Amino acid sequence: MSKEVNSKNKGPLNGVKVVDLSLLLPGPLCSQHLADMGAEVIKIENPRAYDGSRAMFKGKTGYPALYMMLNRNKKAITLNLKRESSKEILFKLLETADILLEGFRPDGMDKMGLGYDVLKEKFPKLIYCGISGYGRTGKYVDYAGHDLNYLAISGVLDQTGSPPRPAGFQLADVGGGTLTAVIAILAALYHREKTGQGQRIDVSMTDASLQFISLYGGILSASGNSPEAGNDILSGKLPNYNVYQTKEGRYVALGALEDMFFQTFLRVAGLENLTKETPMTEENFPIIKQKLTEYFQSKTWEDLRPIFDHTDTCLSPILNMEEVSKDQHMRERGMVFEKNHPKYGDILQFGSPFHFSETPFQYRNHPPEHGEHTDEILKSLGYDDTKIAEFKKDRVI
To answer: What is the model's pTM?
Structure first.
């Protein structure tokens, strides 16, 4: 890693180089976070089997919308890792790399002769991060799975209600895979700066998902019993921490968990006598919930606007994605914006959640086309046009 001092024009990971073999969502979003923080990220795809996200959710001008959400600030190279001569290219890339990121099954890289034990011998300072469903050890190590499976095994899905229902978004992939990997990589970089030692990071999306229900783990530890699915303090039991339907059929979220916020909500809503007439005790929860249900069903969103806009009521409109994309707060925070792509025009982007005062993130480059920088990167590694043509002929790139 470069020892160059960061300035306000460079992110905190300026000088860090990432070789990214991951595909689809958890890994690419992880490497995009690193790239937004200033790291140089080289995305590797098979020359004849591109990242599947390139084929998902095509925009009006034909652009791959999901891919565009996950791959800005990267360079792209094609490399067929099943070809023996590809190892030479990968090893040249790793000579100056700090991090290798992959999302294969735990033995995937080993089967290609590129597992951590092989790479550690050649690159002892390398930080190798593998993201998988169940991790490198344990009964489920070879099991296939997706977000729903990881949430099921970790106990998160049980807390969605009875019967359990899919969350509707990729909680395990992003919270368990992406963000856990980012945290672990940054910790490993810090360790290496002190010791000069690289290491392997084993990220299990199931392991990480377990952390989402630490509260319920505390309840289990204290009582010896599993919380009632879908009816505990954060999932429907409390009238002051619940979802309600409005007159026109939209929904709002009341998150007034502390009494001071709930009393503020009741006062602003003109319901200040509710808990005086019906004390906030467990046996009265259904009664209070019913009265709040009737209140919200008599109000439109516009009727509730003064309560939404009050700073201490903890009442929020439940926005759909189109509304989120136009939300003033999200726009002011830079969390939703459009970025011009030279081929497709303006494309929707979600911003980086990591905000730094001295080393701000930057959106430098558009998400690359498949193999867009292959020749450029190979030439930087010392290969000439003749050798590059040979690689293409041999289907290495």
So the answer is: 0.94
